[in-house]
């Protein structure tokens, strides 16, 4: 099988296979350990994955521009960049429309699907036993944050309640205050829990509405549940992997050849990072003209970190400027790892919601790259 066909196969199969692998990991009981590493509010998820299209755009375009065709073939180089820009624009519009919003005041496709299949922004704060509902926000920190926000809104609109609501209002505010202060369960009876939940729901939808997108619901402390919610993470990681792999077809051969040609230079830069240990330096201080103790300590303890930082800076600059394909591959591995974690995290989404997120990205990127297949094959 030619390398082009191999690459095609990887491009087409890597995302579905990663999701399938996540299910197999779960099926064979290894998912619990992986799920323990998941953190919705962690740095990787909050700064990288959720803002992933930004990072993918930046690194992808830097590679496209850095590895554009050889200077002589300017016409062909310009055509390739124009083709990449066209593909990128289609995928960026699709990313925006599916996850951010269709138009001003109109939610994204993933949220419209959810709402039209019966989804809603819920405020089931207390369960039937009068305890704080574990499914309400999924973690203690998020629950506390949501309850504080609900408490602020209810307090702010305390005087807007009519006589009938006043009693319910004060019981709701009181119960939430109990939980916020003691972080334990409020003394809410089972019969009162439903009434308080419904009151909080009505108040939040009245004062903070409309809560018709997952972003609005999350921002105002609600729980987005009850409909078919295509997984935005599966959609986003699939879209990013398909884009990076698709564009790697344009410049991958040239980039990897350039990387291979400079392999010893890069290896030297990496080993120099470790060649600054205090023991190495202390031994080197011996030699014919032994140095004073102070001089040896300076050479052993101060110079190595400085030398290491300088070597790290040189290596970073070399990779960022001369071999950005290394950064692209690191990003690709990160997105695939996150895709695997999302597939393993069965409590976030059902399999059908994963599949709909996957297909939404996969079909559009598949069509975009299949249309340019002929042009890409000639690269
Ligand atoms: C020639 C010149 C060329 C041009 C040269 C251009 C240069 C370069 C210019 C850039 C131009 C581009 C422009 C981009 C600009 C932006 O990208 S800015 C970023 C804007 N977007 C945001 O801020 C993120 C907003 N959030 C989102 O869009 C959605 O959260 C996402 C990211 C699509 C995910 O959707 P979702 O439905 O929440 O995800 P879902 O799968 O349902 O997950 C359910 C829950 O499980 C959690 N979860 C799921 N999987 C995981 C996991 N693996 N780990 C942890 N938690 C997880 C989620 O965090 C989520 O919990 P919440 O945090 O939502 O409560």
From TrEMBL:
Pfam family for this entry, one: FIT
EC number: 3.6.1.-
Keywords of this entry: Endoplasmic reticulum, Hydrolase, Lipid biosynthesis, Lipid metabolism, Membrane, Phospholipid biosynthesis, Phospholipid metabolism, Transmembrane, Transmembrane helix
EC class: hydrolase
Cellular localisation: Endoplasmic reticulum membrane
Catalysed reactions, semicolon-separated: (5Z,8Z,11Z,14Z)-eicosatetraenoyl-CoA + H2O = S-(5Z,8Z,11Z,14Z-eicosatetraenoyl)-4'-phosphopantetheine + adenosine 3',5'-bisphosphate + 2 H(+); hexadecanoyl-CoA + H2O = S-hexadecanoyl-4'-phosphopantetheine + adenosine 3',5'-bisphosphate + 2 H(+); (9Z)-octadecenoyl-CoA + H2O = S-(9Z-octadecenoyl)-4'-phosphopantetheine + adenosine 3',5'-bisphosphate + 2 H(+); an acyl-CoA + H2O = an acyl-4'-phosphopantetheine + adenosine 3',5'-bisphosphate + 2 H(+)
Record: active site: 233, 349
GO biological process, one term: lipid droplet formation
Chief localisation class: endoplasmic reticulum
Highest taxon listed in the record's lineage: Eukaryota
GO cellular component: endoplasmic reticulum membrane
Molecular function terms from GO: coenzyme A diphosphatase activity
Membrane topology: Multi-pass membrane protein
HAMAP family membership: SCS3
Functional summary from the UniProt entry: Fatty acyl-coenzyme A (CoA) diphosphatase that hydrolyzes fatty acyl-CoA to yield acyl-4'-phosphopantetheine and adenosine 3',5'-bisphosphate. Preferentially hydrolyzes unsaturated long-chain acyl-CoA substrates in the endoplasmic reticulum (ER) lumen. This catalytic activity is required for maintaining ER structure and for lipid droplets (LDs) biogenesis, which are lipid storage organelles involved in maintaining lipid and energy homeostasis. May directly bind to diacylglycerol (DAGs) and triacylglycerol, which is also important for LD biogenesis.
PANTHER family cross-referenced by the UniProt entry: ACYL-COENZYME A DIPHOSPHATASE FITM2
UniProt family annotation: Belongs to the FIT family. Fungal FIT2B/SCS3 subfamily.
Protein name as it appears in the record: Acyl-coenzyme A diphosphatase SCS3
Organism of this sequence: Saccharomyces kudriavzevii (strain ATCC MYA-4449 / AS 2.2408 / CBS 8840 / NBRC 1802 / NCYC 2889) (Yeast)
Organism lineage string: Eukaryota, Fungi, Dikarya, Ascomycota, Saccharomycotina
Gene: YGL126W
């Amino acid at each position: 099988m030619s390398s082009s066909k191999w690459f095609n196969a990887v491009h087409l199969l890597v995302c579905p296979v990663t999701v399938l692998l996540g299910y197999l990991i779960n099926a064979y009981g290894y998912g619990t350990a992986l799920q323990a590493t998941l953190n919705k509010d962690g740095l990787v998820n909050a700064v990288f994955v959720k803002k992933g299209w930004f990072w993918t755009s930046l690194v992808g375009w830097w590679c496209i521009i850095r590895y554009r065709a050889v200077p002589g073939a300017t016409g062909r180089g310009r055509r390739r960049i124009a083709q990449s820009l066209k593909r990128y624009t289609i995928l960026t519009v699709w990313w925006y429309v599916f996850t951010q919003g269709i138009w001003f005041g109109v939610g994204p496709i993933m949220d419209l699907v959810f709402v039209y299949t019966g989804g809603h922004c819920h405020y089931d704060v207390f369960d039937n036993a009068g305890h704080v509902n574990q499914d309400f926000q999924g973690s203690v920190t998020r629950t506390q944050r949501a309850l504080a926000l609900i408490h602020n809104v209810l307090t702010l609109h305390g005087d807007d309640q009519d006589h009938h609501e006043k009693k319910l209002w004060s019981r709701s505010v009181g119960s939430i205050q109990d939980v916020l202060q003691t972080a334990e369960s409020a003394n809410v009876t089972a019969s009162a829990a439903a009434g308080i939940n419904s009151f909080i729901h009505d108040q939040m939808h009245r004062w903070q509405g409309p809560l018709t997108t997952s972003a609005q619901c999350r921002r105002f402390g609600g729980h987005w549940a009850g409909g078919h919610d295509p997984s935005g993470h599966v959609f986003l990681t699939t879209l990013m992997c398909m884009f990076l792999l698709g564009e790697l077809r344009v410049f991958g051969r040239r980039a990897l050849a350039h990387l291979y040609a400079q392999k010893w230079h890069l290896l030297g830069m990496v080993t120099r990072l470790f060649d600054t240990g205090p023991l190495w330096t202390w031994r080197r201080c011996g030699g014919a003209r032994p140095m004073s103790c102070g001089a040896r300590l300076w050479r052993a303890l101060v110079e190595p970190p400085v030398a290491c930082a300088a070597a790290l800076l040189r290596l970073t600059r070399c990779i960022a400027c001369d071999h950005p394909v290394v950064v692209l591959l690191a990003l690709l591995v990160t997105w695939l790892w996150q895709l695997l974690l999302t597939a393993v995290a069965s409590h976030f989404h059902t399999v059908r919601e994963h599949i709909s997120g996957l297909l939404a990205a996969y079909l559009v990127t598949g069509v975009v790259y299949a249309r340019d297949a002929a042009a890409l094959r000639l690269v």
